[in-house]
Amino acid sequence: MKQRAPLIGGIAAIAATFVVFVIPFLFIVLMAFKDRPQSALRDFSWPTGFHLWDNVVEVIQTRNWMMITAFINSTIITVVSVTLLVILAAMVGFILARRKTRWNPLIEFLILAGLMVPPAVVPTIWVLQGLKLFGTLHGMILIEVAYNLPFSIILYRAFIATIPKDMDEAAVIDGARPLDVFFRIILPMLWPVTVTNIVVQSVGIFNDFTNPLYYLPGNANATVQLTLFNFQSQFSTAYNLLFTNILLITIPPLIVFLFFNRQIVAGMTAGAVKG
Amino acid sequence: MANVSGAQDRAGRARKRSAYPGWFYLPAAIIYAALFLAPTFASLYFSLTRWTLFDSVFIGFDNFAQFFREPFLVQGLLNTLTYALISSGLKVVLGMALAIMLTSQIVARGYLRSVIFFPVLVSTVGVGITFTVLMHPTQGMINETLAMLGIAGPGWLVDPKLALISVALVDVWKGVGLATVIYIAGVVAIPKDYYEAARIDGATKWQNFLYVTLPLMRPATATVITLSFIGGLRTFDLIWAMTKGGPGFASDTIASVIYKQYQAGFYGLSTAGNVVLFILIAVLVVPLTMLLNRKQGHE
What we know:
The structure holds 2 protein chains of 2 kinds. By secondary structure, chain A is mainly alpha-helical.
């Protein structure tokens, strides 16, 4: 009996998660394989023919290859902002954990405020316009950095506190300057948190819909999430293309997931419960 | 003079010796101050003006008065609270249950963890569109399946009483994996000794959960509640992808109202909405966090 209970529970759990979690994804995949008339039925039927490739080609070519532009834009925004986030947040986390001054409480308050306070959208647009950065990729990158810094800093600070101070002191005695200490000694040791940061932030920024909607208007600057939204209104009946689009933009997060599955869970748990 | 230069010298040497220069804060601080702090402080002023982005006229609290005079805006406020409570409440309960299940001796643990976590990584808008199709009152798969079982499914997204709850349920579907992961970390961190002691005292499974697991998962619960409650209060993309605040204004939240006012060109009013959301989060989340993180006796 004791042996069988977990097995029965497991089978029940597999069945339940299959219905709740797997079927919606299968639905997306099946829809992407269908032709337009069959997809219009919006049912869970088997595709009558293999139309995935035709759908992909059509989605990519729509609106002057907007999908390609969007993928390039989203990739640039994601890669550059995550790189900046990792370096800048690690620098702040490093000094914040090591150097105790009377400013520390204020800095920590500002970081926590950044996690809670919703960004003031229109004043931010006004500032971006003043800096001539509104509607540019540069501006979008800086926005993503500003909004996601607090979370990255908190992850780093908790981890840096566990690295012994002797490491940096030894390097200083050997004549290393602050930048050497940071880039050659500290940053490499932070790799586990850096992986977490890369995964969490890149998925978040790639999937961001709200901020590009506000700060990056115009078709030339479309990001992948916005193409999805345009498709929905333009092809309100072409469900095969809509779902092919969903499938296409899910591929990058899927790759991240397959590569980092274990680290995501491990790193997230290390940071989340401590912080 | 000698004294001054001596002091400078000493300060110079001290600075050279420190491996922790203050200027490491600078790049992050400039970006954060320019694009987050400054606009936030500016919003406190602009919410009191009639504003066209080029020109602003000070009008005092008229925007706020208008905000609270419009019935649909007040409903948006209530909707925001309802949404945040439903989604974070369910994430706590389901996340905890799933975490306890996934840390027990269950078959296919790896599969179950992956399947539950994967939606966290998928685009919110994509999830929203998919569930909009699945929740269609007559052609959606959910109601067709219910019909086969002889149940008349409700109009998930077209019934004004239900639309907001339906979107909140999809939010739970997407976000419960993150709550589960945080709870798994909480469960794994509980020392085995407590269960040994409980077993010697003859505790049942239920008592084990109630007196050992639940109190010791408090830090994880605090994290899950804070994260999902703030997320719920700020929610926009899922609402926009699924209902656009409709039918009517039945599922409008403050964030979607802010966007609608912005689109219509009412920048002052939109910013006032932002300040309302800001105050709402401060008033609700700060005491909540303090309550949740209150140190317990034995810690």
